[in-house]
Amino acid sequence: MNKRVLIVDDELNLLRSLQRNLRGKFDLTMAEGGVAGMTQILEGGPFAAIVSDLRMPEIDGLQVLGLARLVVPDTFRVMLTGNVSSHLSLQGSISKPWFQYVSKPCTTESLCTVLNEGTDRYAMASSARRPHSLTTTENSLTTTENSLTTTESGSPQISGTSREAVERCRRLRELARRLGDFLNLNETWQYELAGMLSQLSRLVPVAVSEQREQNNDHDEVNLRNQAESSSRIIREIPRLEQIADMVGHQYTEEFEPTVPDCIRKGTQILRMLMDFDVLTETFSEVEAIDKMKERSEWYGEPLFLSFSELISEEPRRRSNVPFHPHKLEAFRVSCSITK
After folding, report:
1. pTM (2 decimals)?
2. 202-213: per-residue pLDDT in tens?
3. Rounded to the nearest 10 degrees, how much is the dihedral formed by the CA atoms of 25, 28, 33, 34?
4. Shortest CA distance to 205 belongs to which of 40, 68, 326?
5. How far apart are CA 318 and CA 1, in angstroms?
6. Which residue has the higher pLDDT, 337 or 74?
7. Dihedral angle sign, alpha carbons of residues 319, 322, 326, 330
8. Structural domains present in the chain
């Protein structure tokens, strides 16, 4: 039986304490902060249960468990909160019976009781799903296009289509991190998150994401549809409207004057990284940059030049060849994003 439990908290000491207390009882994965928690949900699952603190900077527990509800609805979700009076609003935000709140501080015994109940519920849901996964009908929600199918033992596994989406999530997140570090951008976590969630329409069950297109994933019309669908799904997660706008507008060629500059820059970053990722499946990184020059105005010239510098600099770093980059301060100023 799957006893994997993801624990998300921004307090490292608390994570270490929970890891010590729960070691041997569950298969634990610890994530420091909401962004790391979302990364694990998309890239490290499936988990039988997810425990998240409510109050965290950048991404909070409602957003972490909101993503889990969409991507892995069978996973049991536990919210840790020090504010007991807030539990009614939490229950209204995250559907039961797959959600429970736990007041902090809590004993190891009480948390174990909740997690044992949660992993049992997950096992029952997996068993109930198994017969449907062994037959394919037009109306079945458990097809090879779903984010989770089941093995004969009833434990979920990622389908081929979604595995490709997960790999793209990982690559886009890493590209955003590299670019943010290179340019010392503010709020780099937003671009990492936008990169990950841009593939959400390929990861949630068909019933949530609507009917998936069967077109080539590299076709621009299909990529645009994916972006718009992912944007709609992201809006179901509390307080991620700005990320949803970045994802939804990434194929917008002309922005309305009312679109904030932070959204405009975020969409340019995401479109550039997506184009680069698609091209590097066929071409080398240098060749991909060369082909992207023809549409560099879509990304913004300063941003594209900075990204080109990044791609050309890293091989030199790895080979220890001296490199004297062009002055990038103007690019950094141009690409800095403020709320």
Report:
1. 0.76
2. 888 754 445 444
3. -100
4. 68
5. 44
6. 74
7. positive
8. 4-158 (3.40.50.2300), 161-335 (no CATH)
